[in-house]
Amino acid sequence: MMEIFPFETVYYSNEKIHFSEDHFKRLKRACRTFHIPFELSFIDFENSLKKYINKEFGGLKIIVENNNVFKIEEKEIRYSKELYKNGMKLCIAKTLRDKRNIFNYFKIQTANIFHIEHNIAIKKGYDSCIIINNERQICETVYANIFFRKGSEIYTPKISCGLLNGIIRKNIKKYMKELGFELRYEHIYINEINTFEECFITNSIAGVFPVSVIQDTSFSKREFVNLINKVSKFIRPWNI
């Protein structure tokens, strides 16, 4: 029987855990779904993480192991000002994702073919890769949600395509209207990406991060990324 270890990755800066309540709720939901004991209160969860803050900013990974044991470790940060300036370069994973697989919707510490796909992408000179499901719809990247912009409309794949509803993915939605953009959840196919003007990825560590290349398609505009990264919740050392 496969062991299941839910986890969360959080970003902190200035002694504050970003979106800590969202991470707590998602971790608790995963444990409940897979019948794993979860007895930690939110206050204890947050206080446990704060004990590991030892610098101005960083990332932490929280893993729920057997018998309600929480393992907390430092998360390596691979984002930089240079990478932000250049934008991420992505290729397309060869392995297709089964959109019906329940594990798509949770952060689970387990062997994953897409981690291998990520490493293959790195060896090819890319920063990561895009995952496509068995209906040829874009899901996400290996470690992040993905968005596209056309004019004042922002497009992102539907959760039913087989992807994790990321914390940053949920939170930038609140700011789109006031910034003058409309968010649309769609089925996006890889042959449509050359119709978009801008592309970016989101995750808790990276925040909102520009994409410059997907395979042979380039994206030079950063209209939305430049606006959203002025919001304090999404400021990172590499985007200022």
The radius of gyration over CA amounts to 18 Å
Q: Strand share of the residues? A: 25-35%
- SSE succession: EEHHEEHEHEEEEHEEEEH
Mean pLDDT: 95
Helical content class: 10-25%
Low-pLDDT residue intervals, each spanning 5 or more residues: none
Got a strand count? 13
Give the secondary structure arrangement, pairings included.
Blueprint: E1 7-13, E2 16-17, H1 20-33, H2 42-50, E3 57-64, E4 70-75, H3 81-86, E5 88-97, H4 113-123, E6 128-133, E7 138-141, E8 145-150, E9 153-157, H5 167-176, E10 182-186, E11 198-203, E12 207-214, E13 217-218, H6 223-228
Parallel strand pairs: 5-6, 5-12, 9-10
Antiparallel strand pairs: 1-2, 1-3, 3-4, 6-7, 8-9, 8-11, 11-12, 12-13
Structural features, described:
It contains 6 helices and 13 strands. The chain is of the alpha+beta class and 240 residues long. The strands form 2 sheets. Strands 5, 6, 7, 8, 9, 10, 11, 12 and 13 form a 9-stranded mixed sheet that branches. A 4-stranded antiparallel sheet has the order 2-1-3-4.
Describe this structure in a few short sentences:
The chain has 240 residues and is of the alpha+beta class.
What keyword list fits this structure?
single chain, 240 residues, alpha+beta, nine-stranded mixed β-sheet, four-stranded antiparallel β-sheet, 6 helices, globular
